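PT: before anyone asks, these are the final sequences, not the draft ones from last week. 695 residues across everything. Please model them as a single complex and drop the result in this thread when it's through.
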Amino acid sequence: MPNSKDMESPVNTPGVLRSVPSGKGGGPDHDILAGCRDGDRGAWRVLFDRYSPIVHRFLASFGVPPEEREDACQEVFVAVYRSLTHFRGDARLSTWIYRIAARYASRAARRRRVRTMLSSMLLREPLPPPAPDASERTERLRMLDELIAKLSPKKKLVLVLFEIEGLPIEEVAQIAQCPENTAWSRLHYARAELMAMARKRLKTKAAGGREGNA
Amino acid sequence: MSHRVWPDGDDPIAAEVRRALDDAQQRLPDNVTVRRGWAAFDARPAGRRGARLSWFAGGMASTAALALASAALLWPRVVQTPERSHVAQAPVASPASAETRRLTLEGGVEAELQRTSVMRLEGSGPRVEDGAVRFKVPHRRPGHPFVVRAERYRVIVLGTKFGVAVNGAGDRRVDVDVDEGVVEVWNNDVRLARLEPGQRWNSTPPEGAPADRDGTEKNRDAADKVIEKYELPVMAPAKAPPSPVVETSLQLRSDTRHRRSSMHQERKERQERQVAVVATPARAPAGDSPAAARAALAAGDAPRALEIYRALAQKTGPVAENAAYEIGRVLNERGQSAAAVTAWRRYRSDYPAGILRVEADVSIIETLARASEADDALAEATDFLRRRPDSERRGEIARVAGDLYRGRGDCRHAVGAYQVALSASRARDVLEASSFYRAVCLVRTGEGGVEALRGYLRSYPDGRFKRQATDLVEQTTKTNH
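LR: through. Structure below.
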């Protein structure tokens, strides 16, 4: 008999109390949905644990700044709470939540644009740029965020859902509320634009670095 | 290693974009953020979550209230309103009544103020701003202490009679003395003194110096005299504020505008004097906000975020509460687990029924378990399970308790804890791990472990402990044969 003391001890394993990872936890969505509709707090907790990290990531990729993300995530779940009774179950629950999050993120982006415009009109001091971060990963993410922010909202949505969220194109089309071919087409153009911008940016950066060295 | 189809090619730019997309895919929030999100979501009243019409009704009601309030404020009047407050009682008709005023606070706490004292009733408890106040606190349940703030100190009690005085001029000395029971004086995360009946403590300059316990003993006689007389430090007439008004935030409206403005002026002057003599680092600098702290964290400037949260925690209301919790979180992320636990415990004592109370409990247990403080973690976990039979975190905590018992070799209790986890949790990882480790413990105690392991394998045919469970079944069966 093997010594069962040698077995993995989760006490010292990071993530002892890790929330349920996306797509792996609990029962199927319809059980949770039924619980949520009955007002079961535990079911809401499972729903929140399962989908809030995904919503958080989606909002981050969609350009919601870090200081607004938690509130934005809250708003998305409040909208889920309000509308759950209207969810017919034709689409997957995740698709429906993504659609709500996308709608919220687009609205928030519009509000941010208006705010920026107003503050520039009122000659307020513009927001300071984020502090430089030595971390290569943070730098890469910042570059990606800036490039994605320059895409049009429709292209941005398709690119984020397909390339970052890893959804199949039929689900992307459902969320974007367009035919699949349109989703493919938007994805194609979004990819091309993103790569063109990345090339330009990285070449400029490399040239700047060479000049600095010279 | 990236498995992306796009962008293809070996050029460095495509590789950089691939890496950036992979990084973006990993950009998930940490557990604490998720938990805090849940706590905030869960705490929203159902009406606020559900009803849209209530926005309209609420908007109308608040507009009307605002209009009425504006009219009331702008209406010319001669105010003769007697001082009134739903918590204040009439002055005591005793020989000393001209000099003192008695208030009954929430929870039956009695406060006796001298004529020149200024006390503010804040959301988290009273703050003695000037002069001397004596408190009589009925016994309170453990974990629900009564907290009095004075300058940057907190006096924490569970049921006692004691006095707090803030010297109104110069160095703003804070004095605390105890008649009955035990009180503690804290400054941020540091306990400065634990006082027993008859003992005194004061914040002698330089500020923040720890309690002078020897000095306390030496001054016992003098302190006794003060206590016997029931007269707290007498201020020099020149330094005492001339207004005889007892001010609390609940009583401001009952005063005349003239008196209010003169008091405001006096307080402003006092503050200016105070600033001139002593720097007050605990005050939040203008512009500090939770958003600024989050931005500092996002920029990787944890010390700045910590500084902002500490300043915010000195305030009152939900912002202060959240900041008090966040201090622990930031410290924990910086690897200072002991300091983080202290901060969360302080949060618990300040906000015993706070919105993040459960999160604080869970964070403490999790941090202690990770720091291998098994005894402390187990004590916290069992306490949590006893106190919170309806918590949705019960399953997770029971599983941790099971792991801790198992780590100590106490398989019998571990089985019980895992059983609780299995009945209380709906999360798959908790259920799976509890099912497997319960079976392992049953193998160790020789109580049908093999059957339990087979049950685990049936329930989770592709589970993450499949190999271990299969090996254990085979070897246990061989040994039995």
